């Protein structure tokens, strides 16, 4: 006979009877391995390479088709971006207050060299502001002070005539057209309900005055056609077309501006003391002119006049009191009937203070022609100041080496003048002759 013995769960030594013992918790150990982003990217690239290689082996024709489509899509996007950039009008000179209102905006913003202009955009200059704009067809428009214009056309489609156009709401604009390859290309300026269409290699000044209701165009080179409705008038060099609000368009001869002679354009003038030195100005006489007005400015657009001689009876003037620096000068002719010519093409010169010593390092190590732009490579003293063709060289390396690109030059022979001045006041001058091909 078996004896049954009843048993119970043992009680922990320190636990009272009847207290349930919680289950044991086993310790869990977790380990991991850190993987960097570079490793993940490397594995992804490796996997993608293996997949592409397999696809190429199994389906070579399909692989080539996909690659071509991707390349064409990228090239098309790049071409479109370049095309949009090329067909926008750009600011190449800004002086004083110039504002832009985009066609898609209600706000006026300050213009800068990164601002692109599209059809319908507005450009406004202040009383001290001027702007020079280049269009896709190569036409330059100089917007004078207190002027409001609208960009109306800027077409540069492939295999089609190029067209640029603006509307002058108020103020005046100078424009110059290039040599277009397409004979049907045109540059148009609108004033009120009349348009002036310039031909290749032409220059003109167009003014719109909404207060007096008098508009005019003066052609200084080439020719233009002024049209209002069925009325058409041909205007050639040194002729002016008056476009009244009421009445027919009339055409008259105008006084030509003088040709400047001295100082030569981009010429340096080295003197001991610029403030007391006398600068000699000279220009060619204009028939029917009885006096001339000479203006000297520190800006290309003559927004800052430093000297003005309103009545010069002859064709020479001697001016002193100028500080060292860059200057621009122009001359206007006036007839006995008080008729004023357009201003001459401005010339630029640089007034340089000559130091007591001529000991200064200045070497021209080489030149290179990039189209019509000349690259000057040389070496000077660290900390020296350089002027090349009346342009300051902004980037001179700490060891004195420099590379400078000139402005575009016209075809022909040019003498490039390099002037240097060191911290001791010493100066040096070098000249380089360059021939720019047609």
Radius of gyration using CA atoms only = 37 Å
How large a portion of the residues is in β-strands, by DSSP E? over 45%
Mean pLDDT: 82
End-to-end Cα distance, whole Å, is 132 Å
**Proportion in helices:** 10-25%
Number of strands: 32
The helix-and-strand class reads: mainly beta
The outline comes out as: flat
Biggest pleated sheet: 17 strands, mixed
Low-confidence stretches: 1-17, 74-85
- How many helices? The count is 2
Please supply descriptive tags for the structure shown above.
438 residues; mainly beta; 17-stranded mixed β-sheet; 2 helices; flat; disordered N terminus
Plain-language structure description:
The protein is mainly beta. It has two helices and 32 strands. The protein has helices spanning 37-58, 60-87; strands spanning 89-95, 98-101, 109-110, 116-117, 122-125, 130-134, 140-143, 148-155, 163-176, 186-191, 194-198, 203-209, 214-221, 223-228, 231-236, 239-244, 250-253, 260-262, 267-271, 278-283, 289-297, 305-312, 316-320, 325-335, 347-353, 362-370, 373-380, 385-388, 391-392, 401-405, 412-421, 427-436. The chain has a 17-stranded mixed sheet that branches. The chain has a five-stranded mixed sheet with strand order 19-25-24-21-22, with no helix packed on it. A four-stranded antiparallel sheet has the order 29-28-31-32, with no helix packed on it. The longest helix is centred in the first third of the chain and has 28 residues, at 60-87. It is flat. The model is unreliable at 1-17 and 74-85 (pLDDT under 50).
């Amino acid at each position: 006979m078996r004896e049954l013995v009843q048993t119970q769960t043992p009680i922990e030594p320190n636990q009272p009877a009847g207290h349930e013992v919680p289950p044991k918790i086993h310790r869990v150990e977790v380990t991991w391995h850190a993987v960097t982003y570079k490793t993940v990217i490397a594995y992804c690239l490796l996997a993608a390479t293996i997949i592409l290689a397999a696809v190429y082996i199994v389906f070579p024709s399909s692989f080539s088709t996909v690659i071509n489509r991707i390349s064409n899509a990228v090239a098309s996007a790049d071409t479109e971006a370049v095309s949009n950039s090329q067909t926008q009008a750009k600011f190449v000179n800004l002086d004083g207050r110039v504002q832009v209102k985009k066609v898609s905006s209600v706000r006026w913003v300050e213009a800068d060299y990164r601002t692109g202009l599209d059809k319908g955009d507005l450009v406004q200059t202040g009383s001290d502001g001027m702007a020079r704009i280049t269009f896709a067809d190569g036409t330059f428009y100089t917007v004078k002070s207190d002027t409001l214009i609208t960009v109306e056309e800027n077409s540069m489609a492939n295999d089609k005539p190029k067209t640029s156009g603006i509307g002058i709401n108020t103020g005046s604009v100078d424009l110059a057209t290039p040599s277009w390859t397409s004979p049907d290309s045109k540059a148009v300026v609108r004033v009120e309900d009349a348009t002036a269409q310039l031909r290749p290699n032409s220059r003109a000044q167009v003014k719109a005055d909404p207060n007096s209701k008098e508009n005019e165009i003066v052609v200084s080179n080439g020719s233009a056609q002024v049209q209002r409705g069925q009325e058409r008038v041909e205007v050639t060099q040194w002729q002016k077309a008056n476009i009244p609000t009421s009445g027919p368009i009339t055409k008259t001869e105008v006084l030509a501006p003088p040709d400047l002679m001295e100082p030569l354009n981009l010429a340096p003038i080295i003197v001991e003391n610029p403030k007391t030195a006398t600068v000699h100005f000279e220009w060619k006489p204009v028939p029917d002119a009885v006096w001339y007005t000479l203006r000297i400015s520190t800006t290309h657009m003559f927004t800052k006049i430093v000297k003005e001689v309103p009545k010069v009876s002859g064709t020479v003037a001697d001016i002193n009191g100028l500080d060292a620096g860059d200057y621009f000068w122009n001359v206007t002719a006036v007839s006995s009937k008080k008729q004023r010519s357009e201003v001459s093409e401005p010339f630029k010169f640089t007034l340089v203070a000559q130091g007591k010593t001529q000991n200064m390092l200045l070497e021209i190590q080489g030149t290179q022609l990039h189209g019509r732009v000349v690259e000057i490579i040389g070496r000077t003293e660290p900390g020296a100041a350089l002027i090349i063709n009346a342009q300051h060289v902004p980037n001179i390396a700490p060891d004195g080496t420099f590379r400078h690109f000139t402005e575009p030059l016209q075809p022909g022979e040019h003498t490039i003048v390099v002037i240097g001045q060191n911290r001791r006041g010493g100066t040096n001058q070098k000249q380089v002759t360059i021939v720019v091909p047609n």
